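Record Thiol peroxidase, 164 aa.
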Amino acid sequence: MTMTTALGGTPCTTVGDLPAVGATAPEVRLVGSDMSEVTRTPGRRTVLNIFPSVDTGVCAASVREFNARAAGLADTEVVCVSQDLPFALRRFCGAEGIEAVTVASGFRSTFGDDYGVRLADGGFAGLLARSVVVLDADGTVLHSQLVPEIGQEPDYDAAVAALG
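=>
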């Protein structure tokens, strides 16, 4: 099955579906900005902020916004995920003073397919569709959103509210 989003008003499909609320989320294996492995921390809640590239305005805004909100989220890690190379993520975070979130790349993993967010077509084919997945401490999905237009920011309030 696939989901549909849009890029500049042109429909784009993903390789599958986001994990459904109530489902156990797939494992997270990514590459951090220091080239180390990034996985979900057992026993902590996780917000996955997923986007095409930190080098676009809306993607950068989502990292900044989740960075600002992360400090107020008890027992919660925020992982910002794209296909960007770790070097680009490190450069962005250094220039922006981003320290409260973890940035990670899916470039060496099946994350995009596992989470159903790899864009199958359109101008951003191969990149990740803008979406948010919120997990409880056991890895159960509390909230998931595929943003209908890639140029639109995710619903930050709904993601944070899902943490209760």
